[in-house]
Write a structure and sequence with these properties.
The chain has 147 residues and is mainly alpha-helical. It has a single domain, classed as Arc Repressor Mutant, subunit A. Helices cover 60% and strands 10% of the residues. A hairpin with a 2-residue loop joins strand 1 and strand 2. The longest helix is centred in the last third of the chain and has 25 residues. It is globular, with a radius of gyration of 18 Å. It comes from Streptomyces flavidovirens. This is MarR family winged helix-turn-helix transcriptional regulator.
Length: 147
């Protein structure tokens, strides 16, 4: 029996996993505190002025409970802090500490090097085309019927 071709979502997940694995291993090798993929995703979606846990969960595509666990792990590591939300007395914002900003900048620089490695492997033209395609607006998700 032949294996069916992987669909585009599967290929995108594999590519994301490649980047995640490279980033997290590189950061650990550089002596940074180990974080999970979910914790790294929090940093990738965090606004400079702070973001609510509910908004982080929406952006990452996880439950509020999962986002809450990732955030509190990062707070315990000294990378994030909770502050009052000036727009709502009931809400708290999550934002990076000075150490969190330092680690995030290092992660961004590490990702740039990982992209350079990818360009060496598949070619700068392919990486440029990939970036162009992935930044093209897709519009609203379609509602389709399978044949």
């Amino acid at each position: 029996m032949t294996t069916p071709a992987r669909n585009l979502p599967q290929l995108l997940i594999e590519a994301k996993r490649w980047f995640d694995d490279a980033l997290l291993a590189s950061m650990r090798a550089a002596g940074e505190q180990p974080v999970t993929v979910a914790q790294a995703a929090v940093f990738a979606t965090l606004d400079d002025e702070g973001t609510t846990v509910s908004e982080l969960a929406r952006r990452i595509g996880v439950t509020r409970q999962t986002a809450h666990q990732a955030v509190h792990g990062l707070i315990g590591m000294g990378l994030l802090e909770q502050v009052p939300d000036p727009a709502s007395a009931r809400s708290r914002l999550i934002r990076a500490t000075a150490e969190g900003v330092r680690v995030h900048r290092r992660a961004q620089a590490t990702l740039a090097v990982i992209e350079d490695v990818l360009a060496e492997r598949i070619g700068i033209t392919a990486v440029t085309a990939l970036r162009e395609v992935l930044t093209t607006p897709l519009g609203e998700p379609p509602l389709v019927r399978a044949p």
